[in-house]
């Protein structure tokens, strides 16, 4: 194995461990009087991680007042008011339930005009750097091999940009959007380079459907055909899986 992997009994257990690691980063920074910079993800995989962070906020006084967040991606075009938006997802699952300052929340803007996108993306990168870089990046993985929305063909030096979604990703999004025509075919996503610049990376992979692509990510060659395989180039990545996710290893 080319990446460190922990196999947990179930995703609840995995989510508890990942949330504990994120909480540890927040508290460590708090103790030093510094802001913690979190890179956050959407999709079904992180939902229980966010639920656990909310529990830690309510039951163990974990504060997010010193936390800055940058989300990986957003569909394009997409209104933040849409229930399908990643903005809606993040507030519903996390931000509405914690004491984070909304001014410290950053999510790519799906409402831009096309000629505003490049400038927005450069500014997104600048803001991450201005905050001192991402302390910990949470990731899921798509069946296409994407991290964020870095689909097959993404290069190692890619940064935040507008991308086209892979047919597999569009097919998987039909369950959220109702029909293929309703799925946005583009997104704004952090790049591979943006993700690899995080100091620490944790990836959650749950369920049988992810097993084949996880095997390629963990054991296969580093290749743009499996963008998640670029994680093998990072020195502090940990992969958390449930039993089902290892079924095809
Ligand atoms: C989504 C996100 C990815 C996520 C992936 C897997 O569309 N853009 O960041 O990791 O697809 O989603 P899920 O966790 O629901 O399987």
TrEMBL record:
Domain (Glucosamine/galactosamine-6-phosphate isomerase) ranges: 11-237
Protein name in the entry: Glucosamine-6-phosphate deaminase
Originating species: Gaoshiqia sediminis
Full protein: residues contained: 13 to 261 of 648
């Amino acid at each position: 194995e080319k990446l460190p992997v922990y196999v947990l009994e179930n995703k609840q257990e995995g989510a508890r461990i990942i949330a504990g690691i994120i909480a540890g980063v927040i508290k460590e920074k708090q103790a030093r009087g510094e802001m913690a910079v979190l890179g956050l993800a959407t999709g079904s995989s992180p939902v229980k991680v966010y639920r656990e962070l909310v529990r830690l906020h309510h039951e163990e006084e974990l504060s997010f007042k010193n936390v800055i967040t940058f989300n990986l991606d957003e569909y394009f075009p997409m209104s933040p008011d849409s229930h399908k938006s990643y903005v809606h997802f993040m507030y519903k699952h996390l931000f509405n339930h914690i004491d984070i300052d909304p001014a410290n929340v950053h999510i790519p803007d799906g409402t831009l005009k096309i000629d505003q996108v490049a400038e927005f993306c450069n500014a997104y990168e600048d803001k991450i750097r201005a905050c001192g870089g991402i302390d910990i990046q949470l990731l899921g993985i798509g069946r296409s091999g994407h991290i964020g929305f870095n689909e097959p063909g993404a290069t190692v030096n890619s940064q935040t940009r507008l991308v086209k979604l892979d047919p597999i990703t569009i097919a998987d999004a039909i369950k959220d959007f109702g029909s293929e025509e309703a799925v946005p075919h583009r997104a704004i996503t952090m790049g591979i380079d943006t993700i690899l610049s995080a100091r620490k990376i944790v990836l959650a992979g749950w369920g049988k459907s992810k097993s084949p692509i996880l095997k390629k990510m963990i054991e296969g060659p580093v290749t743009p055909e499996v963008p998640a395989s670029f994680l093998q180039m990072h020195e502090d990545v940990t992969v958390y899986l449930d039993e089902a996710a290892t079924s095809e290893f």
